[in-house]
Amino acid sequence: MRFGWRLLAICLVIASAVTAGSGETGKSVAAPSRAAGQSSVAHPAPPATSSSNATYTLSPERRAQAIAYSHTLYVLYFVGTLISIGIYLLLWRARVSVLFRDWATKSSRHLFVQCLIVVPLFVMATAVLKLPIHYYASFVLEHRFGLATQGFASWVADWGKGLAIEALVGSIVLWVFYFVVRRSPRRWWFLFWLASIPLVLGFILIEPYAIDPLFYKFTPLEKSQPVLTSRIEAMLDHAGLAIPPSRIFEMDASSRTKAVDAYVTGLGSSKRVVVWDTTLKTMGSDELLLVLGHEIGHYVLYHIPKEFVLDEAVAMLFFFLGFFAVNRLVERAGPLVGIEGVGDLASLPLVLVVLVGLVFLSAPIVNGISRHYEHQADQFGLEVAYGVVPDPNAAEVHALQILGDQDLADPDPSPFIKFWLYTHPPLDDRIRFAARYKPWSEGKPLMLLRAE
After folding, report:
1. Splitting the chain (452 residues) into consecutive groups of 10 residues, what average pLDDT does each group show?
2. In a domain, 450, yes or no
3. What is the predicted pLDDT for the residue at 172?
4. pTM of the entire structure?
5. For residue 15, what are the CA distances in angstroms to 133, 152, 279, 430?
6. How distant, in Å, are the alpha carbons of 74, 178, 243, 427 from that of 413?
7. Cα–Cα distance measured from residue 368 to residue 451, given in angstroms and rounded to the nearest whole number
8. 3-state DSSP of 8-19
9. Partners of 262 in the beta sheet?
10. What CA–CA distance (Å, rounded) separates 185 from 168?
11. What is the count of structural domains for the chain?
């Protein structure tokens, strides 16, 4: 949800640039257990009491791998952004978008039908040009560092499903975009921003039902882990969040990755708890409850609507800036290949050039907002676990350590990378906070968890 408006941007970008997902840049704090009380933990058990000197530690070999993996992702992020811009400029200069527009206008006079023709063709063209870097980033690199379990055939199938989703969603979004541009050439930036709000909310509502099951299998956790499900329910009740056991699921992440995660997703009736099966194999139930306490905090503390409002405010500012940039770029570069204006479907590559640039420039702002709320969620997770987990500090420290080790989180990110890419505080900072935050031992009241 924190990237609501950026999800819309991704739909517009169609085949978006490769994004960095290392360590804490894109992965949420998450991790469950194999069974409540009995887990096949692959890491040393947490100490009886958490140490105030706890830090994120890796073996020398694992540390070198984490640094190499993370730094490669950083490079791919920035290089991928430049490659995306270059591909869109190539499709503009080669008159490919003009060709697609001509085919569409000859086939139908209706804008929506034209978008259904242009967008899938554009999706396929950009996907083919981006295939080498996408294949390297999402398949070769993950296997090289031992994080992936997915076979090549399955990867190709997922790639095809992703293209189909991009084509469908992109057709709808671009239809709305070009509709408002043609209706209001001077205020389209504001009208499209307004339209982006229900589009993003609708995408978030249907994602758990319509999109996620296309890639993963979800089974009720209660069937295989009834005791663990009961403990999760107790944690949810303690936090005042109502999610029935029928919406607590195990996801077969092991079919594609060795990384660990768990999360709460959806809004209203689509709200659900999802635990990766990889996490069930590596963490105990106490660690899982701390992870879910963090995720629950986002809902109890209203982070979703708060971040949505802030992100939409950022989006409005950048849409306004994009209005001038798009108009200027299309005015200067469009006539060179026969683009008649912003409302011309052939302007799509130039619109995406501006959009990629705006998404890139807005990343520090959006990620800075996210880091603030992620820290609050860490604090809430410790508070809500107090009285439910024997030693919440030790469990949180151990959970974060396992998360970093399994996912190869960067042990020492540079200040610039933290500022530009990180959606969460660096893992070492989080572990230090998890070890030291214990107001109950100091006779202080809890700050975030409301007393009943």
Report:
1. 40 36 34 30 41 83 96 96 96 95 95 96 96 96 95 96 94 96 95 92 86 94 91 87 90 92 81 90 91 90 90 92 95 92 95 95 94 95 90 94 93 95 95 93 83 42
2. no
3. 95
4. 0.84
5. 12, 20, 30, 33
6. 10, 41, 36, 10
7. 30
8. HHHHHHCCCCCC
9. 275
10. 25
11. 1
Cα(271)–Cα(248) distance, rounded to whole angstroms?
A: 9
In the structure encoding, which two tokens stand for residue 421, read together? 């890419």
In three-state form (DSSP H/G/I as H, E/B as E, the rest C), the secondary structure along 378-424 is HHHHHHHHECCECCHHHHHHHHHHHHHHHHCCCCCCCHHHHHHHCCC
Q: For 115-153, give one letter per residue: b (16+ CB within 10 A) or e.
A: bbbbbbbbbebbbebbeebbeebbbebbeeeebbbbeee
In a domain, 313, yes or no: yes
Q: Which of 145, 147, 160 is nearest to 27 (CA)?
A: 147
Q: Residue 276 in contact with residue 32, Cβ under 8 Å?
A: yes
Say if strands 248-251 and 272-276 run parallel, antiparallel, or are unpaired. parallel
Is 406 among the domain residues?
A: yes
CA distance 193 to 309: 12
List b or e across 331-369, with b for residues whose CB sees 16 or more CB atoms inside 10 angstroms. eebbeebebeebbbbbbbbbbbbbbbbbbbebbeebbeb
Q: What is the CA radius of gyration of the chain?
A: 23
Look up the domain containing 183 and give its range: 4-442
Closest CA to 249 of 266, 262, 236, 234: 262
Q: Which helix (H) or strand (E) holds 262?
A: strand 262-265
Name the residue with tokens 């009285």. Answer: 387
Question: Backbone dihedral region of 14: left (phi > 0), alpha (psi from -120 to 50 degrees) or beta?
Answer: left
